[in-house]
Amino acid sequence: MELIQLAVPVLLKGLWVTAALTLVSVLIGFNLGLGLALMRLSSNGLLAGFAKYYSNVFRGTPLLVQIFIFYYGLGEVSLVRDNAVLWWVIRDGSRCAVLALALNTAAYTSEILRGGLMSVPVGLVEAAQACGMSRVLRFRRIEFPLAIRQALPAYGNELILVVKGTSLASTITVLEITGYAKRLMSQTFAIFEIFAIAGLLYLVVNLSLIAIIRLLERFLMRHESQSRQGLSAPRSDESAAVS
Amino acid sequence: MEFGLWQVWEGGWVTAILRGAAVTIAVGLSSMVAGLLIGVVCGLIKWARIFPLSLLVDGYTSVVRGVPELLVIYLLFFSSVEFVTKVITAFGYAGLAESGYAFVIAVIAIGAISGAYSTEVIRGALASIPNGHIEAARALGLPASRIFRRIIAPQMLRIAVPGLNNVWQTTIKDTALVSVVGLQELMRISYIGANSTRHPFIFYLIAAVVYLVITLVSQAGFDGIERLLRIRARR
Amino acid sequence: MKLKVLTLLACLAGSMGSALAAEGELSIGTEGAYPPWSMSDANGNVTGFDADVGALLCTKLAVTCHFVVQAFDGLIPALKAKRFDVIISGMSITADRKKEINFSVGYAELANMFIAAKGSDLAGITDVDTLLKSLDGKKIGVQAGTTHAHFLEKRAPNADLKTYDTLDQMQIDLASGRIDTAFADQSALQDFLDKPDGKNFQLVGVKIQSTFDPTLGEGIGVGIAQENTELKAKIDKALCELIADGSIGKASQKWFKSDISRPCN
After folding, report:
1. Which of C168, C172, C173, C174 to mutate to test the interface with B (most CBs of B within 10 A)?
2. Minimal-distance CA residue of chain C relative to B11
3. What is the three-class DSSP state of B53?
4. E strands, A23-122, where?
5. Interval A46-100: pLDDT, tens
6. Beta-carbon neighbour count of residue A47 at 10 Å?
7. Which domains does chain C have, with CATH numbers?
């Protein structure tokens, strides 16, 4: 009981850091991911190739390695240290973690959105074209909203993976939930209890995230009839969302 | 010279890194097998809705998938060590001490995580087997074990391959997390190398390349299997 | 089926004793990343002062040594879980740790110091109180789970503490300017100053002895599981002999260029 009184306030302090890391990484990562997905689908071979290699490299290596390359690796390069802007990012553990997480989630997001965009029926796009919609308008009104609906369940999984990924920031001196849990462990040695409480916090965050996504899904699908099964079946491709 | 390529060669790190890569693959494979065993058992339980057990399985998968892998590894490594030590001692590995111990812990931790994802994949695959097939087999009076072997397992495997590919990729990448508790695998070796030579950039870059090779090669392997299964299915 | 496996495991587990170590072998937990106390190379061999102390101890006890490398903040949990018999890893004897494990007599003692960039405002400070006050808002590197970390948590609550798993990581960040100062024992910091990275740094001229605050402990000792009183008696006796005949002092000269051994009472 005493332990809970000691641990919970400290871990809650970490919760805010975890939430902030997630939010900023997701904001940056989603936009980058969208850009990458569009590049991948563009007819320009160079852009499509870059997006493909980017996604393969970031999905093919562990996040921990990426974080260490950015934090310890780039911190060694004098070119980075002498550049004020780069050093501002790399210097700080949490900014560095955000950078790594954002670039990482961008790769997965691009795959998910690409799947969503490809599922948009060609007929709809052609119809919009026939109506004389510009490319931007077409994307905003037709392709993007449909793609997002299609991609939302997989993107929900990805969000959870980002939340879990923030725990790795503890390895580069950031004090978020896991970082505080480790510090508490070496103070109290009540290992199981501390990590159980920390795990519970993550679980609460992720379960509420799932609930929010479900609500959003229902909201976006409010015009659809009950033909949900037909929609979610051909989505084997981008279930690559497991990090 | 800034990045210390020379030290990598000179300090004997190349063989160390290769050795680490071998350990990484060994941990990955063992965890994947352990995870598959868990996945098939739990997947079947979830699919067949065997009542009290399915609740347990639900709890297991949502906890493991909702809690960071790093936390699961810390928890298993620091707290349940006593239990694991006893199990290892019981199996006569007392002399194996450090490396064997860390290896077993790693496989238990990563296997448990991998198992949760496998469970979902297997359950999904089972769910997509047409009910009619099983009913037809029952109508023919086939015993349950035979239905599983002849009807369920082959179809399930084929459908599950792409999902299991994803699980394998996740599993091999998760092994990097075991480095934080001291198993001398690829990431740990790179970490020791980076710290002792003071050239983190080159060491972590090499680690990234080795991981990339592992994931790309296994991706090609899975693509091959998928193609093979598709051809066999068509015939 | 599941039940069967569980009972089987339980039986096996119950029938086996708790000790991991085979007869005639002493397994030693150490950090392997804390020069010059304990370092490990590409092949996993452990060297350093603690490796020498371990080897001397094993010779005295007529057993073979076996080193297990483990991050510092995981050493006590691992000892409690009987992963090894003793900890020899420059570990200070503190009241908090004594609640978890037992310690031998102290075999060494070192002053704790801060390090800072030459010419920085911290570098010129010469008394403890000014030093502790001027730590407010500073980024201080410290190793996770050490007495140094606990000391700063207590005495410099307004500092921005950065905790590292290993000293090497902390030194990388010190060299790159991510942290303003670092707190460790004198020998570990001297090791950094002797490297090319350390050329722009100096020790802050304040030696903080362990008598200054109880969080800093009472010298460095060998960690032993609480119930293992027989082993503690043996190790205490062996250590006292090794200190008395100068063997530990000689090892200390080799690694620290001075005798840091602590007289045995």
Report:
1. C168
2. C42
3. helix
4. none
5. 999 999 999 999 999 999 999 999 999 998 888 888 899 999 999 999 999 999 9
6. 16
7. 25-109+219-256 (3.40.190.10), 112-215 (3.40.190.10)
Determine the Cα–Cα distance for residues B40 and B121; give it in Å rounded to an integer: 9
Cα–Cα distance, A74 to C146 (Å, whole number):
28
Question: Domain residues of chain A, as ranges?
Answer: 2-224
Could you read off the pLDDT of C38-70 as tens digits, one per residue? 988 777 789 999 999 999 999 999 999 989 888
| Over residues C125-150, mean pLDDT | 93
Contacts 24+ apart (CB under 8 A), A219-227: A220/A148, A220/A149, A220/A152, A221/A149
Cα of B16 to nearest chain A Cα, Å:
17
Write the CB contacts of C95 (distance below 8 Å, at least 6 apart in sequence): C214
- Give the C-alpha separation, B183 to C146, whole Å: 22
CA-CA distance, A19 to A166, in Å (whole number)? 9
pTM: 0.86
Chain B partners of C166 at a C-beta cutoff of 8 Å? 195
Closest CA to B189 of B173, B166, B206, B212: B206
Q: Which of A 163-182 lie inside 8 A of B, CB atoms?
A: 163-168, 170-171, 178, 181-182
3-state secondary structure C161-224: EEEECCHHHHHHHHHHCCCCEEEEEHHHHHHHHCCHHHHHEEECCCCECHHHCHHHCCCEEEEE
Domain ranges of chain B: 5-234
Question: From the CA of B204, how many Å to the nearest CA of chain A?
Answer: 6
Q: What is the pLDDT of residues B116-142, one digit of tens each?
A: 999 999 999 999 888 898 899 989 999
Q: How confident is the model at residue C19 (pLDDT cuts 50, 70, 90)?
A: very low
Q: Which amino acid is at C160?
A: D
What would the pLDDT profile of A124-142 be if each residue is shown by its tens digit? 989 999 999 998 999 999 9
More confident residue, C83 or A67: A67
Work out the percent of chain B whose per-residue pLDDT is above 70.
88
Fold of A2-224: MetI-like fold (1.10.3720)
Options 2.60.40.10, 1.10.3720.10, 1.10.10.10, 3.60.15.10; which CATH number does B5-234 get? Answer: 1.10.3720.10
Residues of A in contact with B199 (CB under 8 A): 76
Continuous segment of H or E residues that includes residue C65 = strand C64-69
